[in-house]
User: Which sequence fits this backbone?
């Protein structure tokens, strides 16, 4: 979709509520993108560092993939930037139990740039030194990410994606225009 558009998603009966994207919306102010994930529900406390998630792997992730030139066939591996909210597992051992934590305190925001060092086997992304505002509303069931994205413009294309390492993923997109 184009920045400034919104779209509705299908409700899943198999995905966790906090990964099931039921809608997405965005606003563009200059090169500042505000991206809102509308989810079925976001619990105030979530389990982090769950058994089965290897140390250092991204356990939870909500991403807006961005093509600054407006590629209508945008995929998660054909983009210029990711605006992301995520949590990477930190497990001391395989037997370390997961912990219940406040989602607001655990999830972090980043802007990542596609690296020319990527190839068909390995995706390489470089973090940018950008301020990222992240807001989770349990009342509205939204996760909002706001940041400056270099080169983004009204004709850029964006795609919303959510991922749970153990339980699956969801995405939402619509044709530009």
Assistant:
């Amino acid at each position: 979709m184009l920045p400034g558009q919104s779209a509705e998603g299908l409700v899943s009966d198999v995905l966790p509520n906090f990964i099931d994207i039921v809608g997405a919306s965005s606003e563009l102010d200059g090169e500042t993108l505000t991206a809102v994930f509308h989810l079925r529900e976001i619990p105030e406390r979530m389990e982090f560092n769950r058994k089965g998630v290897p140390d250092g792997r991204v356990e939870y992730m909500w991403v807006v993939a961005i093509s600054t030139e407006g590629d209508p066939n945008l995929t998660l591996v054909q983009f210029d930037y990711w605006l992301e909210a995520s949590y990477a597992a930190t497990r001391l051992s395989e037997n370390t139990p997961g912990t219940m934590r406040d989602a607001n305190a655990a999830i972090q925001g980043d802007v990542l740039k596609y690296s020319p060092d990527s190839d068909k086997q390995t995706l390489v992304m470089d973090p940018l030194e950008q301020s990222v505002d992240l807001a989770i509303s349990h009342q509205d069931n939204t996760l909002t990410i706001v940041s400056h994205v270099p080169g983004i413009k009204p004709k850029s294309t964006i795609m919303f994606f959510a991922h749970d390492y153990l339980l699956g993923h969801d995405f939402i997109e619509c044709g530009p225009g």
Notes: Helices lie at 103-106. The longest strand covers residues 58-67.
